[in-house]
Amino acid sequence: MNIEIDDIKHLFKKRPSDVNKGNFGIVGILGGSVNYSGAMKLANLGAVAMRSGAGIVRIIVDKDVAVGIMPYVLEQTLFVLDHNIDEAIKNLNVLGIGMGWGKNPKNLQILNYVLKKFNNKLLIDADGLNLLAQNMELLKDTRAKVILTPHLKEFSRLCNLSIEEINKDKINIAKNFASKYKIILLLKGSTTIITDGNKLYVVKKGSPGMATAGSGDVLSGILVGFLGYNDYSPLSVAACAYVAGLAGELATKKYTDIAMIASDTVKFIPDAIKIIQNS
Predict the structure, then answer these.
(1) Which domain does 63 fall in, by range?
(2) Angle subtended at Cα 220 by Cα 219 and Cα 221, rounded to the nearest 5 degrees
C-alpha cells in the first residue's frame, strides 16, 4: 500500500488544551561517541524528537561525549551513562539506540542487555544495526518491540544477502525478514518499505537532497519522538517516514537538492506536520 496523507492524517490530530508533557511519552536516545557525536547532535538538533511530539526526551551518552553534546541540550534532559543502564532506560516509552555509536565492542554488550531487559518500543539504527548483524540471534530473546531502520547496505549485512539479491525481490525479502524476527522493518531508499511481515506500506516521499550525511539520524529522531505517544505499528512507522520525506521535499525547495544538508530537513518538520493536519 502506497502511503498518502489521508492514510495517516488521523495520527496527527490536534491536541486538547488540558494536557501536559506526561501525556506524550518519555523517550530516550542512546548513542554518540567521541568520533561521531555529531550524529547525536543531529538526531536531537532543535529537539527533533520533541518537534515530532514527544513530551520528554532523555539523551543518554557516555561521559566522554557529554561535554561535547551539552551545549546542544536545551529542552531535553541529559543522562550520563556510567554503567547504570537500568536507570538510564527506566520509564521510557521508546528508546532509540545506535546513532553515532561507533564500533566499541562494549556497545554490543549494552545492546544485548537492552534487548533482554527493555520491554517497550526499541528503535535500532546505524551502528546499532552493524552490531546486531554480528549476532542476529539476539532478536530471538528480546522483550522489546523492535523497529529496525537499515539502508540497503545495512540490510544486506542483517539478512546475509547481497544488495543485488535483495533488489531482485525486495518486498518479499523484507516481509520474510520481519516475520522471521518478529520486528517492524523500515528499509530506507528512494522508495521506503515498512513491514511487520504481514502488513506492508510503501512511502514515496523525499528528494535527492536528502542523500546527505545525517538524514538517517533525523528520521530516527522523528521515529523516537512520534512513537512516544503512538502505537507500535507499521502504519505509525510509515507516518514517520512520510513526515521525514515531506520535510525533506520542503527543504529542497528552499535550499536546492545540491545545497541542502540534513539539518535543513529538521527545520521543515513543523511545516510537514501542518500540511498533514490541514489537508
Answers:
(1) 5-278
(2) 90
